[in-house]
């Protein structure tokens, strides 16, 4: 019952992707960049004394051996299932205290380990229910050794459906010698041609003819495979938990700030390949934003700004020629990638990290992948690097957001609507590359007719950084009052020519005698010119000049004791 090696190849390819990347009082944008929060991350669970395909399945973000409370005895049973992944079909299997190493359904299986027995059983019993996919068969295997040599083996097959638990039993034939070791194995599919969708549940198994008890025969006891990791970080602890090796990443009280820093040590582990396990030296950490499943693409932090640098602090205690490094890979909204990186040399005290991030102007960065490693060479140490025992400390890692350096943004100015036209003028302010108003306008200044109280918003974009900021303003319609003179003739004021090249006239008609003031203001409301006027006749004309002021829109306001009226004037 050989394990499928295709998925081993996938693991090796994915892991080498990591190695390929390595070789080639603002907001915190890197999750848990200060490494204050840690968690015990459960990878998968196994029935005690049994080996299943769950490690391989975990690598593919699934499971083939499950604890189920759909039981016959006790509280739990074992459920094996055959599942289809993106690239392969994984069958559910379980071996008792050992592992099949070679052989097939048409040959003799060979195994390592197994349970010790005191004699030769004459039968095997169990409580089963199952649904076996079409064109597939489930397998129950009993294999026996004496002094390491196989002396007997029986393989039984199941097909079709058994929807409720039933006791099943099989005879075990005579053996060449009395065995000292037994291997019990189950598979819910034929290893040579597994069909997805099939499953088998087993609740209690036992031998007939001998008094030996099969370990955890009722599958009541389960053990969790887990690793302790900083929240939102993937470290080499995952590899050592799956494939063997000492813990690589730990929390350290020797921190630059706060309570903890991340301590990464180079340790030896293994990776599965088609030809077996391959020894490597690992010591790395990769942040992710939300969730990450092993076997997927490289973890990514999503961003809504263009970062300009990776910052933080580190200490590094290398052995021999080890060199630590950080590689940052940026991805824009079009899927293009832009790699950056920095070397971390030996440092006995915390030293600042400043890794500039480079990419073409005008792109919009959407994702950031960061890989920190204790070494640039992952073969076991031979003087070139990859030395077991090099130690890297990291703390306060973050992305530099240039948008954080801008002062708070607000709309530059609003000229309230006048009775004459009910038009408001709103200025978003100059110096921005792009403007987008809630009206759909894309200019710095908009003119809007106000019939009712309305909220207007604008988003502005900086030219180089692409940083965006927004603000809004509420504008209400004017309250208009007509003032008439004693002779009941309506007071009138005319300004002309409008637009003007600089010289214009203010003409008064039917204005009551008295003291008046004329004010000329820019769009922000700043008074540029002010003049006191004495009205002592029915009609009067005043000359004003804007020759020394730039082209644009101005506000002219005429006011008296019981009279006030404003006008817009455009200078061309």
Write a short abstract of this structure.
The protein is mainly β.
Task: Describe, in plain words, how this protein is organized in 3D.
The chain has about 575 residues and is mainly beta. The chain folds into four domains: about 10-20 and about 30-35 and about 230-400, Galactose-binding domain-like (Jelly Rolls, Sandwich); about 50-220, Sandwich (Jelly Rolls); about 415-475, no CATH class; about 490-570, Immunoglobulin-like, CATH 2.60.40. It contains three helices and 43 strands. Strands 2, 7, 10, 12, 13 and 15 form a six-stranded antiparallel β-sheet that branches. Strands 18, 23, 24, 26, 27 and 29 form a six-stranded antiparallel β-sheet that branches. Strands 3-4-16-11-14 form a five-stranded antiparallel β-sheet, with no helix packed on it.
The beta-strand count equals 43
Low-confidence stretches: 1-26, 482-489
Quaternary organisation: single chain
The DSSP helix count reads 3
Please indicate the percent range of residues in DSSP E strands (runs of 2 or more): over 45%
Mean pLDDT: 85
CATH class of the largest domain: Mainly Beta
Helical coverage, percent range: under 10%
Estimate nothing, just give the exact number of structural domains.
4
